[in-house]
Amino acid sequence: MSSSSQASLLDVESRPGRPPVLRVESPGDAASWAAGQRDALRSLVAERGAVLVRGLGLREADQVGAVFQQLAGGPLMSEREAFAAREPYRDGVYSSTTWPPNQPMCMHHELSYALTFPGMMMFACLTAPGSGGVTGVSDASAVLEALPAAMVERFEREGWLLTRSYNDEIGASWAEAFGTADRGAVEEYCRANAIDFTWQDDGGLRTRQRRSAVVRHPVTGARCWFNQIAFLNEWTLAPEVREYLIDVYGEDGLPFNTRYGNGDPVGEDVVQTLNEVYEAHTAREPWQPGDLMIVDNIRTAHSREPYEGPREILVGLADPVPLSGCSPTVEVRTR
């Protein structure tokens, strides 16, 4: 890489309350540009946690896929255990998660409940919404430091528990989440990934999995608040949505919920504290068509705010990281 190319990546806008923004001018072929700048971009993400690249002019899925492949430097990950459906565009390129536009997706780390999760996430904006729809980012180490010590200590000691009740009406079905309609294959996956499972009389599936709430970054060693305790908890849902789901499915049949690692409920006050700390550490930049955002998924949480109008964001997952390589505080045993 030429010194001028390296220098251009150092010209990054950094403003309070906003993620770092790198502006590029007419790079020509976006995939070729990404290939040439790959190492510098990844170094920038390692340093800053996330970067928004503006000016690439990304317009269609094949172009985005080629850019994602170059940045990943290898195959993109296939998603398993999704909590809501995504539309696949091409190998390893997905739509953003299907979620009601008027409901926020609060801060979380992608697949933080899995035994292997992406170390890097890539987002590309093909269509920006008329209003809202920002993908916010938040530094997981700063969040950890800002949380009450007693709360952190309990979650660090006990971990967190994700409970799921798969059905064909809300969120991803079990066949969509596990990528197969073969019950035997689902059971084999669950045993290999430390997931307790129970089949219901109506054909539904309920699962429980215990994971660490705090991990160490595999490269930097920094301690990070890494989980989806707030996002997948019942108290993050809008009150009318929560009441409807409980009325239809019951307390134990919610499509997803989170608990302390010993099974105790997580109170509304805890979820409120988590979301308030996230909000205090959120950086935002409205999407523009053609934007690319690269995120260190362990160091940096991300969110999606409510929006109006069409919104098309493509997603790629890369750099698979095993939980075992992140100094988990909770032992996980597979069968």
Compose a concise summary of this entry.
This protein is of the alpha+beta class and 335 residues long.
Poorly predicted sequence stretches spanning 5 or more consecutive residues: 1-7
How many H/I helical runs? 9
H/E element sequence: HEEHEHEEEEEEHHEHHEEEEHEHEEEEE
* Backbone shape: globular
Count the E strands. 20
Query: Which bin fits the share of residues in helices?
Result: 25-40%
Structure write-up:
The chain is α+β, with helices and mostly antiparallel strands and 335 residues long. It has two domains: 12-99 and 115-128 and 284-323, 4-Layer Sandwich (Double-stranded beta-helix), CATH 3.60.130; 143-275, 4-Layer Sandwich (Double-stranded beta-helix). Residues 1-7 have low confidence and may be disordered. It has helices spanning 3-10, 30-48, 61-72, 140-146, 149-158, 174-178, 183-192, 239-249, 268-280; strands at 12-13, 21-23, 50-54, 88-90, 93-95, 105-108, 116-127, 131-132, 137-139, 160-166, 196-199, 205-211, 214-216, 223-225, 256-260, 282-283, 292-296, 300-304, 307-308, 312-322. The chain has an eight-stranded mixed sheet. A four-stranded antiparallel sheet has the order 6-18-9-16.
